[in-house]
Structure formats: C-alpha cells, structure tokens
Amino acid sequence: MKFQPEHSTAQTIRAYGPGWIDVNAEKITTSIILGAGGLRLAWPCPRFEDLTPDHFAQLATLEAELVVFGSGSRNRFPPPAWLQPLMARRLGLETMDTPAACRTYNILASEGRNVVAALILETQP
C-alpha cells in the first residue's frame, strides 16, 4: 500500500547547507518565505537577532494553515508577544532550526498541506 503520492506539484527544497537552500534547482542565499503553492517572498532578517514583531505580523497576513519557522543554525524561539497576530488568526507556528524546518516543510508540502516556511538563512562571515 502506498502512503505518499507519486508526484507532488508543491515547491520543494531540494538541498540545503549553511546559508543557502536549493528550491527547484535555484540556489537561494537570503532569508525567505516559501509556500507550497509557489509563494516566494524575501524576508529581510539575515540573523535571528534581526527579527522584529513586524516579521511575524507579515506571516499572519499569509493564506496558510501552518507556518514552519526556521530560526537559523539552532532552535531559538521568538518572544510570545510577537506571535499575537498569528494567534489572532488561529494560524499555527512551529519553530525549529532551519535544516529541520526545510525537512518538515517538504513533508507537509508533499502531503498537499497549505504550509509556509519562513526560513532564516544566516549569512556566513
């Protein structure tokens, strides 16, 4: 019995490394918001320390059922008050390091879920 579809039309992260991801054969080196349905938005926060409440308010405007937040090279949580716009819309947010967020996004997108990944791709010195 098969549990996964043979082919997914979702935008997929094909590879990743420190400071970059490959989305459908395009190398991306800056933080990004990525949606299974083709959404790609620049997300101006090169480091976790650069995040502000406005970054999470932007996520709350997206049409999604879940946001997977990749916080960089290690798992870090934003202040709970910053998540208020997401909670007001009953929009789920899962926080993990960026490599784990890439893997989780791919699994959910391949299942046909309306998922968005907000990924911090830390610039390398």
UniProtKB/TrEMBL annotation:
One Pfam match: DUF498
SUPFAM superfamilies for the chain: MTH938-like
Matches recorded under InterPro entries: MTH938-like_sf, NDUFAF3/AAMDC
Superkingdom in the source lineage: Bacteria
PANTHER family: NADH DEHYDROGENASE [UBIQUINONE] 1 ALPHA SUBCOMPLEX ASSEMBLY FACTOR 3, NUCLEAR PROTEIN E3-3
Protein name according to UniProt: Mth938-like domain-containing protein
Organism per entry: Acidovorax delafieldii 2AN
Origin organism lineage: Bacteria, Pseudomonadati, Pseudomonadota, Betaproteobacteria, Burkholderiales
